[in-house]
């Protein structure tokens, strides 16, 4: 059997969650190539990492580096792996080396910026400086800053708004944006969707049905910009920032009179060709403006609009503490957010509530090596390993059901939950957060403020512990709160796509009005 055939089998196993078969097939590939084929090693590492098996993925990448130390692909993937497992210093150092060696590589520069957002040791000033350097690099690639194209008066026609994303699919961005795009008033806005991801699923079909759909995954920046100009776009909106599949470099070509960043990124893009970064008062208190290259535009009803997945459970389960006799804290966030300070504070919480348990869930926690490392970290803080449970990935419907196993969700910091927090709240689980100085540290705080629960946001680590202990000591209150969260969410702007679409239209029209002639 050829390596290509085995890889196809491994991909099928990965997509269906057959982890034992995936591992066995990956080992067959390595055996067949005697672990001497760099491309095979990289392909296997990508499959393993995507399914959460970080330890064997790391071994493959390190072997690829030994065989081909100048091949940047293995180094990039290793830096991403370090970020996934919370080794931010190692990730940062490796990306610094890569940017030094390959300063004009778009993927490397982009990933380096994303990694900084997860890095608890990266200050807002450092993040802004690095983003600004990226913006200057992007403009230099196209011969400097390009002029703004003419902005003709609307004269009663709808504004032509183009949304650009690699995530118009069952992804956080696609799930959050689909109902908003569907709710746009066609008399005010004509919606164009530029899909850079090449994925087709139920979400992409929903978005295609309510927009003029453009598959631009195969287009380079010049061709994408030409398509935007040909479509006569008035306002071009980036929904990816520097995340995977980003087309932000095309915005440096200035194809639209107004260009904005919204939803899919959590910081400044660094590009001065972006006319507005859409946030809200909760994500962006006044001091946040200094962190951003772009002007901050504050949406009055919030940055997020949420609708539960069609397969979300119809009812909320009672808090498990009522039947188990102890509190279970939980976190279903990416392990890249679980830095040492987060784990140390959670260990203090477990000391303060001696019978409490902690349940962690993310795809990388299927890896025995990472699970052991997490458990060992808590043991170093004096926490019995039996009190820590780790779960790997599951299908989304199953994940939502697993919220029945936790009483209180703990938000990590400084990178807080977005969709993860929405889903926890929808499943009746209150989320305890500690907002910081950056927009990404204030995501859950914005959600809690929107649904009238600002008391779940801590001022500092002592307040975090106080709120958690107070909630844990009141199981009947937890039960009442749990069964009220859906009502709170449904009554808030957070779950009003029509109202959210109106505020977006108001923003786009106001921004266009500033430059229209």
Mean pLDDT: 97
CATH topology of the largest domain: Rossmann fold
* Percentage of residues in DSSP E strands: 5-15%
CATH superfamily heading of the largest domain: Glycogen Phosphorylase B
What structural class is derived from the secondary structure elements? alpha/beta
Number of strands: 12
Query: In order across it, which strands form the biggest sheet?
Result: 3-2-1-4-5-6-7
The number of helical segments is: 22
Looking at the structure, what is the overall shape? globular
Structural Rg: 23 Å
Ends apart, CA distance between termini: 65 Å
Indicate the percent of residues in helices: 40-55%
CATH hierarchy: architecture of the largest domain? 3-Layer(aba) Sandwich
Query: Main β-sheet, in a few words?
Result: 7 strands, parallel
Q: Indicate how many domains the architecture comprises.
A: 3
Unreliable runs: none
| CATH first level of the largest domain | Alpha Beta
EC number: 2.4.1.255
Keywords: Glycosyltransferase, Repeat, TPR repeat, Transferase
Enzyme class: transferase
Family: Belongs to the glycosyltransferase 41 family. O-GlcNAc transferase subfamily.
């Amino acid at each position: 059997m050829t390596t290509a055939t085995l890889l196809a089998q491994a991909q099928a196993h990965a997509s269906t969650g057959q982890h034992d078969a995936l591992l066995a097939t990956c080992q067959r590939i390595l055996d067949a190539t005697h672990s001497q084929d760099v491309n095979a090693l990289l392909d296997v590492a990508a499959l393993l990492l995507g399914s959460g098996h970080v330890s064997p993925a790391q071994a493959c990448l390190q072997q690829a580096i030994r065989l081909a130390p100048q091949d940047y692909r293995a180094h990039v993937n290793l830096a991403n792996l370090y970020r996934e497992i919370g080794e931010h210093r190692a990730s940062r150092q490796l990306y610094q080396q890569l940017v030094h060696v390959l300063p004009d590589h778009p993927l490397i520069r982009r990933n380096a910026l994303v990694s900084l957002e997860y890095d608890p040791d990266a200050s807002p000033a450092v993040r802004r400086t690095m983003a600004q350097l990226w913006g200057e690099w992007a403009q230099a690639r196209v011969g400097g800053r390009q002029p703004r194209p003419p902005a003709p008066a609307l004269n009663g026609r709808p504004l032509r708004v183009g949304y650009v994303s690699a995530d118009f699919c069952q992804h956080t961005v696609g799930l959050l944006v689909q109902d908003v795009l569907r709710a746009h008033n066609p008399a005010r806005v004509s919606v164009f969707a530029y899909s850079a991801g090449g994925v087709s699923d139920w979400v992409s079909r929903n978005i295609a049905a309510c927009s003029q759909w453009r598959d631009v995954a195969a287009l380079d920046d010049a061709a994408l910009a030409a398509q935007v100009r040909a479509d006569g776009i008035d306002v071009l909106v980036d929904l990816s920032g520097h995340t995977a599949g980003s087309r932000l470099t095309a915005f440096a070509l200035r194809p639209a009179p107004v260009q904005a960043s919204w939803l899919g990124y959590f910081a400044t893009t660094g590009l001065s060709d972006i006319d507005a970064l859409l946030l809200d008062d909760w994500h962006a208190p006044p001091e946040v403006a200094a962190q951003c290259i772009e002007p901050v535009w504050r949406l009055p009803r919030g940055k997020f609009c949420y609708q539960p997945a069609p397969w979300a459970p119809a009812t909320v389960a009672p808090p498990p503490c009522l039947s188990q006799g102890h509190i279970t804290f939980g976190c279903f966030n990416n392990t890249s957010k679980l830095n040492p300070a987060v784990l140390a504070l959670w260990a203090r919480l477990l000391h303060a509530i001696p019978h409490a348990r902690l349940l962690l869930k993310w795809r990388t926690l299927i890896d025995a090596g990472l699970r052991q490392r997490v458990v060992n970290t808590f043991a170093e803080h004096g926490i019995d390993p039996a009190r820590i449970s780790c779960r790997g990935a599951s299908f989304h419907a199953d994940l939502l059901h697993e919220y029945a196993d936790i009483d209180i969700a703990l938000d990590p910091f400084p990178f807080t939950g977005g969709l993860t927090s929405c889903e926890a709240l929808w499943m009746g689980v209150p989320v305890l957060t500690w907002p910081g100085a950056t927009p990404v540290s204030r995501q859950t705080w914005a959600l809690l403020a929107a649904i009238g629960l600002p008391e779940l946001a801590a001022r500092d680590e002592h307040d975090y512990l106080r709120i958690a202990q107070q909630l844990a000591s009141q199981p009947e209150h937890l039960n009442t709160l749990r069964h009220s969260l859906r009502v709170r969410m449904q009554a808030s702007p957070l779950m009003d796509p029509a109202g959210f679409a109106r505020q977006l239209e108001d923003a786009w029209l106001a921004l266009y009005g500033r430059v229209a002639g």
